[in-house]
Amino acid sequence: MSQPGGPTDLPPPPPLRPRGVGEILSAAFDLYGRYWRTLLPLVAVVVIPLSILQYGLAEATRVDRAGELSAEEAVGAGFGGLVIGLGSLFLTILVTGAVAWAVAGILVRREPDLGESYRFGLARFWPIVLVSILTALAVAGGFILLIIPGFIFLTRFSVSVPVLVVENRRGTNALSRSWDLVSGYSWPVFGTLVLAALLSGLVSAVLTVPFAAWLLKGLLAGIASTITTPFFALVLALIYFDLRVRKEHLDVAGLEAQLRASAP
Question: Which one of 99, 120, 169, 178 has the fewest beta carbons within 10 angstroms of its own beta carbon?
Fold first, then answer.
């Protein structure tokens, strides 16, 4: 993997400085354009096969229901759905950690490496699972109670995974660190997340809505997720670094030192 100050043909990373909402999204597009050749395969090898499996199982179950599903078939379909669902969840978490590590490295002028990114995702797999579960429970509880707390938790805990990746903080420590970083900047962070989600949803809708065949729809849904997942990870990472620059005056040297310390 290329190290900072290594190959001169690598484009310089965007400077770590305070950015507005539009600047964060623009920087995410810029980094995406530079590194898509690594980021897309990083996601595609996992997401596309899973997407096809999910759509295929849904289609098989739909067809069987038309002919009155037997008890054995119902149990088999349910078990298959559970296995695919759990596999999708775990592999999505693996991809989340791998992409977050690749994105953090990009900002210190490290060329993203597929193998190293997945090794990092595996090494941090269970901590990412725990942080994801805690965040999901908090957000779900907030929506069940009064709706508005759900958006607050979603915003305040949004950079928990970058915190875990860069600072190696785990569990509730990662959540509390995310909460503290976002504090005072909740509205800009929320606005950035909403715009990134709308852009990602638009891409998914354009690719999947016009098609009815399950195989094609599953393939295109996987492609859509492959395109949008790295972009959203870039946005989250840039939000995280923006907050640290504003509050702690983080620079590239400091970030590089933290990445070296956090490397598995």
Answer: 169
